[in-house]
Amino acid sequence: MKGWNGIVCILVVVGAINWGLVGLGMLFGGSDWNVVKLIFGTWQPVEAIIYVLVGIAGIMHIKSCRANSGSMMM
Questions:
Q1: For residue 6, what pLDDT is reported?
Q2: Relative to the CA of 24, which of 1, 17, 36, 64 has its CA 20 to 30 Å away?
Q3: At residue 42, what are phi and psi to the nearest 5 degrees?
Q4: How many CA atoms does the CB half-sphere of 65 hold within 13 Å?
Q5: Is the pTM of this model over 0.85?
Q6: What residues contact 11, with CB distance under 8 A and at least 6 apart?
Q7: How many whole angstroms separate alpha carbon 14 and alpha carbon 35?
């Protein structure tokens, strides 16, 4: 299970950085700083799979946060 947690953490961090860059790009001149799209933009199915994996990782991370917060209260 530790391997999955590492993958989930990496995907959540990648997603967070990507959305942060998208937001900064919008604030500073409307540029598209979407790193995933810049790297995989020509391969739209791969780009879509990455977005789905990041979304699943976010859901898994929420569940792990809830599990950890419950154990901290005891």
A1: 85
A2: 64
A3: -80, -20
A4: 9
A5: no
A6: 53, 54, 56, 57, 58
A7: 9
